[in-house]
């Protein structure tokens, strides 16, 4: 429970970690891309253009776009051979140095992710559902801090935005990994916007790139499409979830461990934990060693905690 962000010093800062511009396959230049997030209530954004030879391995210096109350993270979407189904890897890194080097011949996706993490970046396995990553693929990226439980562009265009199942299977195998929500914005169709769909709320003492990346790497954030998580606490044999008004609170723990509460405008919801501590079937001990919380509002928009480890 001590990784939960809600009682950490500071406040929540809203940010998007996966965004494209005309430096790669986006349709709006970097200045206008960043400006959209600044002008629409975000506290920070990471510009993460595709880091491939075709686009000149762009890592855009967005420092000049920082202004009072708004900042940027330096980032890129990294690519290297090769997933089990033969695709290039898609690995987002936020907090990269501007001189992060292109891959050398023979460098794999997991190796590139490890190099990004060693440089100090927050490393994300991007949109697993969109391009058919297997659980074994994601397991191999052992330097990743998180995977995208929700990718807005993939959901919007292909109905392949959700990756909660992969997260649960990974954890049931003993992997500790967080989850984030992103836009993966390209600004291609103004009438069909792929921006403002999913983001993270990061708990930090200041809206500073170093503080934000440190908080992300420590897991001090939650992911959302809109609903707000205000607090999560264990009270005896219950978990208490405080939130903006929602209609559903789901506490899940892998396997067949679920508890749900339904209502109108739920804002403080108590959910029993007996099924997570005991279980009704014989299962591997790793299953049930954690829980995670999903809340759903009247519009069907969701927010997700990171996994909460019970052992």
Plain-language structure description:
With 311 residues, the protein is α/β, with parallel strands linked by helices. It has 7 helices and 16 strands. The chain is 18% helix and 32% strand. The radius of gyration is 19 Å and the shape is globular. The termini are close together.
- How many individual β-strands? 16
**Superfamily (CATH H level) name of the largest domain:** Metal-dependent hydrolases
According to CATH, what is the class of the largest domain? Alpha Beta
What is the averaged pLDDT score?
94
Q: Figure out the total of helices.
A: 7
List keywords for this structure.
single chain; 311 residues; alpha/beta; TIM Barrel; Immunoglobulin-like; 2 domains; 16-stranded mixed β-sheet; 7 helices; 16 strands; 18% helix; 32% strand; globular
Layout of secondary structure:
Layout: E1 11-16, H1 30-39, E2 44-47, E3 50-51, E4 71-78, E5 91-94, H2 109-118, E6 122-125, H3 135-140, E7 146-151, H4 152-158, H5 164-172, E8 178-182, E9 199-204, H6 209-218, E10 221-224, E11 229-235, E12 238-252, E13 258-272, H7 274-277, E14 290-296, E15 302-304, E16 308-309
Parallel strand pairs: 1-2, 2-4, 3-4, 6-7, 7-8
Antiparallel strand pairs: 1-9, 4-5, 5-6, 9-10, 10-15, 11-12, 12-13, 12-14, 14-15, 14-16
Entry summary:
This protein is of the alpha/beta class and 311 residues long. The protein has seven helices and 16 strands. The chain is globular, with a radius of gyration of 19 Å.
